[in-house]
Design brief:
This protein has five helices and three strands. By secondary structure, the chain is of the alpha+beta class.
Amino acid sequence: MEQQNIFKALSDPTRREILRRLRAGSMSAGDIAAQFDITRASLSHHFNVLKAAELVRSERRGQQIYYSLNTSVFEDVAALMFDLFGRAGD
C-alpha cells in the first residue's frame, strides 16, 4: 500500500463517488460512465488513479471491463487512519 497514491486517489470527489457506487458491487466501466457527465478519457484517468492506489480491481469479461472495490486496501487505510488519529479521547 503506497499511502501517497491512496491519498491522491481519495482527494478527488469524482473518484470518491466512483468508490461509493462500487460499494453495492462490481460494475462495468460503461455502467459507471453512464452515471457521470464527464468524457470517457477523464473517466479512464480516474480509473487508472484508483487502480494505481489499488483501491479498485479490474476484470475483463468479454469486451467489458468490470471494476470492484479492493476491500483489503480499505482495511489497511482504516488501520492507518486509526494509527494517525487514534480514538476520541486518546
